Amino acid sequence: MSQPVLSIRNLVKRFGGLTAVNDVSLDINPGEVVALLGDNGAGKSTLIKCVSGVHLPDEGEIRFEGKPVSFPKPIDARSAGIETIYQDLALANNLDVPANIFLGREVKHRYLGGLINTLNDKLMLTEAEQSLATLDIQFPSLTQPIESLSGGQRQAVAIARAIYWKARLMIMDEPTNNLGVPEQQKVLELIRRLRDQGVPVILITHTMPDVFAVADRIVVMHRGRKVTEKRTGDTNASELVQYMVGALDDGREVAA
Amino acid sequence: MTDSKAIPAGARLPPEKRFILLASRLWAWAFLGLMIAFFIIVVPLSGGATFLTLRNAMNILVAITPVLLLGLGQTFVIISAGIDLSVGWVMSLASVVSAHAIRASFNAGAPLFLAATLGFLAAVGASAGVGLVNGLIIAKLKVPAFIVTLGSSFIVRGMALLFAENTTVIGLPAEIRDYGNESLFYLVGGEGGGFYAFFRPDVTGAMLRQMDRIFTWPVVITAIVVIICMFILNRTQFGRHTYAIGGNMQAALRTGIPVERHIIKLYMLSSVTAGIAGFLSTLRFTAGSAVIGDPLLLSSIAAVIIGGVSLFGGAGSIIGTVIGALIIAVLTTGLVMMNVQAFWQFIVVGAVVIIAVLIDQSRDLILGRRGRGS
């Protein structure tokens, strides 16, 4: 197997006396969807925030594409190619699709040697169209404020934005929350398409059907520790729940 | 497994909703048109003079310039979900400071145009300074804009009155009034009249009384500022980021928009357009006044709101603010010409503000608009 895209070794993150992430190691390989499961407070969000530059880990190492990395700020992780899509999608509902895809990174016409710059909306529109087309996403109109789009469509805009900016690892936090069932299916479909294009995805979720629908591998956390890691075909929902609530624990068995 | 259309096509708006959307966008234009038509018919019936005359139209333009200038910067600030309550007194401060600069430099021997230019720079500098302090406190110390600009309006009020050594700075060169009151074009009616550009025709007596000044210099300067503001808001990254910050501050932060720096610039912009208003009033009245701006603050915010800028941020336009200012001015002029007691203006303007917001809200309700988050 080729070298992992992301490799976490013995990562520890403490908040005061609380050890939120305790000695977690994890590999993400190219073109694979890994589900990160765990109850509230299991430490999965903290782990992810260490990868996406929100928190700095106290111990351990993160290697991205083979190189040790440290992300003091979220923008550092993003420029390295790690894109995190949180539940609030970081979209401006009052702007249209291209404006959102290029938010903060607008393409400009330069006049008078850069003294006067105007927005190149035409180019941004064509680029947005192409970016959505590669994901096989179709909207009736790209130039309406996205508040008229459904939850799944806005999720798609956020994913298209990440892809357009060459995300090489995608982290998605509960992407199917607050969506209707058909929309959930469409978002899962998008995740599969990302995988088919070779972009690995870490999927943080509570939703068991999502896990079995798209994940290749499943990592379960409990009280800050990684308690198991399974191929999707080797496990089932009730076993995973037992890991999530702490009834099963591979680490403990090994230690015993 | 891979079906081709990943996301269902979003339901296109049904025709009746599209009509409501269109109507809610255009209502201000329609209202302005209806109001003008109303006054054209009703003013003569109530014993007033003809409403729709060139002179009247030009007077309305002259009257709206200060309110509009205050509203232009405010439009940016309110689109970003902020508010600037200091602009009224900033206008006053700029008027006083520019009057001092003009008087001092002219008395020191500077030619008139240079004195006026120095007055302009003084007005812009003083107002930009206030905006910088406002912006720094709002952006860096995270104090709500309402509080910061409320406090700074008192401070600036005190400064304006102190610098004016009471309320008025007089003793400006008399010729400066030409800058404030002469115009781009002139139309002289009657025998031997004609149309003139740039320079005032040498007419006296009855002909002078028949002369119309078309687009006085303050109107021209305000029009230029309007065009610049439209350009910035619609065509530049600065404008796009202003909408983004007002639409979803978190998204703006996470996509790497320099939000703090942007907010500082916004409050400077808002102060500077107010400063230009102060400078122009000094030219127009040949005096600096420390009390000229404050009564205009609420009118300018009213103009912005009538023009469709959402106080929650994220929506609005410059042209809307222009229409809003026009509606207020036409309303006021028309009522005066109908010999309606002046106090009724306030009642009508207030009602229009509330109706404008109700129209905006009903649009959101009918269209089932989502909240602004996510």
UniProtKB/TrEMBL annotation, chain A:
Residues 6-248 form the ABC transporter domain. Keywords: ATP-binding, Nucleotide-binding. Belongs to the ABC transporter superfamily. One of its GO terms (molecular function) is ATP binding. This is ABC transporter ATP-binding protein. InterPro entries: AAA+_ATPase, ABC_carbohydrate_import_ATPase, ABC_transporter-like_ATP-bd, ABC_transporter-like_CS, P-loop_NTPase.
